[in-house]
Amino acid sequence: MSRQDSAPRLDPQAAPQDDPAAVDPIWSRMRDEAEQLAASEPFMASMAHSVVLHHPSLEAALSYRLAQKLSSPEMSPLLMREMADRAYAETPLMGCAGRADIRAVFERDPACHRMIQPLLYFKGFLAVQSYRLAHWHWTTGRRDMALFIQMRCSEVFGVDIHPGARIGQGIMIDHAHSIVIGETAVVGDDVSMLHSVTLGGTGKEGGDRHPKIGDGVLIGAGAKVLGNIRVGECSRIAAGSVVLKDVPPCKTVAGIPAKIVGDAGCDRPALSMDHGVRFGEAAKDIVPDC
């Protein structure tokens, strides 16, 4: 059975509304895993209860977890949690995006064996949820609070995402160390990236100055995508590349500066997580099948 087959799927219309596991299978599975963790590892029981089992919903658990991580001497966990609770209550799509992100990590990261792990341990997932909270403040006019959350996310997780960026759902950031995403960047749905990726500008000019990443793109470790350029959907950017020009859909680019070296190799490279690039004489030999 594949990871995709083993992952619960959200289909409320096809499920009995009196069955909590059918209405929210991801949260139900996370609770089951938390109970198993508490039973198998007594020293982790307190964490399993405080982060998961004490909460009625994933939104409440995320609010608690982010408050604990992002709080500081200047901002208490209680105040941070109040703001997070309000954000999740007023913007249901934040909870939906969180579920999609958990599923993305579970399905694409071979180091993730349980759905509870991103919430407990994975700073890439927690950084993306912190961005979502900061973005809510940014779009509701509370920009100083948004910048405070950005600062804390950078300090705590080593991930610097400007709250003005627009990021879709189903995002997987593996390892996540030294990720930088600029203010006017746009990241589509189902994008995967590894550590040390930069979606940045090329100078000190203002305005729309950051990359636009299409759905399903895979960005390798250390890649830099710079300027107001577009990376077409379902493309691959090889590790260590510096991308300075538009990338067509469904292509693989590599090098400094990056150039097209072949097709993407499969329909959804961000889902396959295949980073391998083979250089051969024939175009078909450039990229292995996914």
UniProtKB/TrEMBL annotation:
EC number: 2.3.1.30
Keyword presence, rRNA processing: no
InterPro entries xref list: Hexapep, Hexapep_transf_CS, LbH_SAT, Ser_AcTrfase_N, Ser_AcTrfase_N_sf, Ser_O-AcTrfase, Serine_acetyltransferase, Trimer_LpxA-like_sf
Domain Serine acetyltransferase N-terminal: 26-130
Record has Acyltransferase as a keyword: yes
The entry's keywords: Acyltransferase, Amino-acid biosynthesis, Repeat, Transferase
PROSITE patterns xrefs: HEXAPEP_TRANSFERASES
The protein's annotated pathway: Amino-acid biosynthesis; L-cysteine biosynthesis; L-cysteine from L-serine: step 1/2
Region (Disordered): 1-23
Short name of one Pfam family: SATase_N
Catalytic reactions of this protein: L-serine + acetyl-CoA = O-acetyl-L-serine + CoA
Biased composition (Low complexity): 11-23
Domain of life: Bacteria
Family statement drawn from the similarity comment of this UniProt entry: Belongs to the transferase hexapeptide repeat family.
NCBIfam families for this protein: cysE (TIGR01172), EPS_EpsC (NF041874)
Name of the protein described by the UniProt record: Serine acetyltransferase
Organism expressing this protein natively: Paralimibaculum aggregatum
Gene giving rise to this polypeptide: cysE
